[in-house]
Amino acid sequence: MSVVVRTRSAVTPLRRSITALPVRRPTVDEVVAVNRPEEPVHCLRPSVLAATARAFIGAFPGEVLYAVKCNPDPAVLRALAAGGVMHFDCASLAEIRLVRDMFPDAAIHFMHPVKARGAIREAWARLGVRDFVVDSAAELAKLRAEIAATGVPGSLGVVVRIALPRGDARLDLSGKFGAPLQEAVALLRDARRDSAMLGVSFHVGSQCLDPLAWRDALALTGQVIRAAGVAIDVVDVGGGFPVNYPDQQAPPLGAFFAEIQEGFDALGLPRARLWAEPGRALVAAGASVVVQVQARRGDTLFVNDGVYGALSDAGTLGFRYPVRLIRPEGAASATLRAFSFYGPTCDSADVMRGPFPLPEDVAEGDWIEVGQLGAYGACLRTAFNGFDRARIVEVEDVGLATVPKSLVA
Asked: What are the backbone angles phi and psi of residue 88, rounded to the nearest 5°?
């Protein structure tokens, strides 16, 4: 069969044309057998993405905003929209433009706490964005000034992001953004003067495995709201919802949603809406990357992607991803062996320790599918050392991580 693929450069991930879907999507094994690729291949699974979105939206007790930074590929956005996602958490003009071009009627929320002045003006006046996050008095003043300068009327929505203490998430996010309690109180009072919608948000950190983290964060949110003494329209519990990796088994998402619902109810805000900003939980299972083995030295495999490409988190953060060998001709050994990977660049830091269990006879020329890379895989690619090209194909198999039948235990 013919296999429809696209090729992209890492330096322009948001500037590719949006093309029609192929009539029939191949499997990953068919892609490898037909193309025998020597460049990394990103395998997108629209059906998995749509099913995951439907399941999350159906179970979460509020509105779901997809965090576009996690994977901005147009095919991914299209699949999430098919699953019901029509609210988007954007952090830049490039993301906002992309979403607005694809979905003219979508609700877009500018959730980066620090924004360029020109970005505020364009988002407000040309792209129709009305909701903005702030975490300082200076940012709120900037927001007001730039919106006023456009002369374009509209109903402003302001969400104040509060600081959280350091938690136990796999990737802590407490150091960069968030207003301390007293500053958050003053911001809420100030923003309430001219905001048609006023919200409070927080972020417990990426890949947070503890449902109680959201309960504690909502309790702190309640302290801020009570001290401010103003009406609140939205409580945004951020992202951080986890997925399973070989060395990280997450509780079912229902456990997180139950804590969020209980914590939200305890705030006593019957007219307030509840928001969440999932990224990883919506898209991790929706893509994998196929790499080729270029050399083997003992228990180390040299592959054609690495920490400067889609496997950044496997190196920098030490994430372990599910893997499987693809060998179109001939069977592989049934005995598994633990391997580490080196990426294609000349940098010795381009290493992924794993361990990654693969057949003990893996050899140069074999292919390896690395799963759970729909989140922070493609979007972290760089052009370092000239290894900036990757192929993209939409496939029909479910891959190495499947959508659970239920989000509750």
From this structure: -130, 130
Tell me whether residue 409 is in a domain.
Answer: no
Q: How far apart are CA 60 and CA 84, in angstroms?
A: 13
Q: Which two tokens stand for residue 355?
A: 């361990």
Which phi and psi angles does 298 have, rounded to 5°?
A: 65, -120
pLDDT in tens, the chain (409 residues): 556 555 554 434 433 333 344 446 899 999 999 999 999 999 999 999 999 999 999 999 999 999 999 999 999 999 999 999 999 999 999 999 999 999 999 999 999 999 999 999 999 999 999 999 999 999 999 999 999 999 999 999 999 999 998 878 787 877 789 999 999 999 999 999 999 999 999 999 899 999 999 999 999 999 999 999 999 999 999 999 999 999 888 999 999 999 999 999 999 999 999 999 999 999 999 999 999 999 999 999 999 999 999 999 999 888 999 999 999 988 999 999 999 999 999 999 999 999 999 999 999 999 999 999 999 988 888 889 988 888 899 999 887 764 444 443 3
Same domain for 40 and 137, yes or no, is no
Per DSSP bridges, beta strands 157-161 and 131-134 are parallel
Q: Which long-range contacts (CB under 8 A, 24 or more apart) does 180-183 make?
A: 181/220, 181/223, 181/224, 181/227, 183/136, 183/137
Structure tokens, 1: 């069969």
CATH number at residue 196: 3.20.20.10
Please report the sign of the dihedral spanned by the C-alpha atoms of residue 339, residue 343, residue 346, residue 348: negative
- From 283, 301, 329, give the residue that closes a domain: 283
Kindly give, in sequence order, each residue whose CB lies less than 8 Å from that of residue 56, ignoring residues fewer than 6 positions away.
64, 253, 278, 281, 282, 407
Structural domain that includes position 53? 46-283
> pTM of the prediction?
0.90
**Count of Cβ atoms closer than 10 Å to residue 377 Cβ:** 29
| DSSP-assigned letters across all residues of 211-230 | THHHHHHHHHHHHHHHHHTS
